[in-house]
Amino acid sequence: ASERSTLLDGWNATATDFPLQHTVQQLIEAQVRHTPDAPALAFGEERLSYRQLNERANRLAHYLIAQGVGPDVLVGVAAERSIEMVVALVAILKAGGAYVPLDPDYPQDRLSYMFEDSGIQLLLTQEALLQRLPIPVSIRSVALDQPGDWLAAYSTVNPGITLTGENLAYVIYTSGSTGKPKGAGNRHVALTNRLCWMQGAYGLDASDTVVQKTPFSFDVSVWEFFWPLMTGARLVVAAPGDHRDPAKLVELINREQVSTLHFVPSMLQAFLQDDAVSSCTGLKRIVCSGEALAVDIQQQVFAKLPNAGLYNLYGPTEAAIDVTHWTCMDEGRDSVPIGQPIANLATYILDSSLEPLPAGVTGELYLAGVGLARGYHQRPSLTAERFVASPFVAGERLYRTGDLARYRADGVIEYAGRIDHQVKIRGLRIELGEIEARLL
């Protein structure tokens, strides 16, 4: 019984008191009141203070409210990285809505499906994309960068929309094994928990600069956007395409004195091959997720960037970005673990009859706690298949990750691959079933 209680409770003792009644936009608004004139956002030569960002987002939010946006209303965003993209995401949340990122680089068929499946009636985009995207006639599209001060008539005051933690913040589409992508709808309470945990773990302050470089159709981008803005740090948005270019990243890190950024391990490896990488002495935090982190990449970071902490995070889009964390250190082992559950989340490694497996035995990783998505957008049967009733806590749900894992004797989790035919390429979830469905 003691082993069972360790597996179920001891290693899941993550209860933490966060202000989960507050939404991320309220946390950003509180920061605006605290440091209105501090630098908030930079892109190329453009700069916005916290007050300027807030006022621009508020004008757009009041416009969105006038268009009928409110709680659980989904709003599409199709944009290249820019100041407008950040303003749009903050504004949608302020209006009470949830954003749906539509990457302009996605194939037309996939975008068409996402437009239809999401049911969005409003799309925020950019002039250059209006002709390029397969926007259905039923959707009203608005170019954020249209000429003239088109939002001048709208108020700069915080909208003050009331939301609950159950309301959606964003819906991100992931590859679907049935051949169709599926939208994972994530709740405000889960996002606030994830961001508050990250701040408690890695503490940003006004001296920090975070780079936003992850394509916004990946949920890593969610913390890149909002964590700095709720903590008084500065957000620097990388130019479109630059996330693939190590030399440009080195230059950006040094020019903007970036302290914190994310890499998928394959891109981190490319970054470490750049001759100038050791010049990035201001880097304090490198966060990895999206695919397994190899020990040799970890050792290269320690050698070339000795000032930087390296953190390995793990989590599916269905559970508000990340669910486990590990601070990398040289343990002399042949793999880097994914660590232990973050605040207010639980991990279970179970057999096929949902019984907990002892340390050292590989099974399927299940997740529980406040981070779980509400479910898949308009896919009740798929939601019921992946989000199941917990046999351990009455009224709780478990999310079946499809990932294999095992506990070490110390309760640290090692990732052990996939159960199914999902593969990861540069952090992109690819269901081979989706490819097969197109080939048939």
Main attributes of the structure:
440 residues; alpha/beta; Rossmann fold; 2 domains; 13 helices; 23 strands; 25% strand; globular
Describe the protein in words.
The N and C termini lie far apart (51 Å). This protein has helices at residues 2-8, 24-34, 50-66, 83-94, 108-118, 127-130, 188-202, 220-229, 246-255, 265-272, 295-304, 380-386, 432-439; strands at 39-43, 46-49, 74-77, 98-101, 122-125, 140-143, 168-174, 182-187, 209-212, 234-237, 260-263, 285-288, 309-314, 324-327, 340-341, 345-350, 363-369, 375-376, 387-389, 397-407, 413-418, 422-425, 428-431. Strand 7 and strand 8 (182-187) form a beta hairpin. It is an alpha/beta fold and 440 residues long. The longest helix has 17 residues, at 50-66. The radius of gyration is 21 Å and the shape is globular. It contains 13 helices and 23 strands. It folds into two domains: 1-23 and 191-439, ANL, N-terminal domain (Rossmann fold); 24-37 and 50-162, Rossmann fold (3-Layer(aba) Sandwich), CATH 3.40.50.980. The strands form six sheets. It has a five-stranded mixed sheet with strand order 11-12-13-14-15. Strands 16, 17, 19, 20 and 21 form a five-stranded antiparallel sheet that branches. Strands 2-1-10-9 form a four-stranded mixed sheet. Helix 3 packs across helix 4 (83-94), helix 9 packs across helix 10 and helix 10 crosses helix 11 (295-304). Its cofactor is pantetheine 4'-phosphate. One of its GO terms (biological process) is amino acid activation for nonribosomal peptide biosynthetic process.
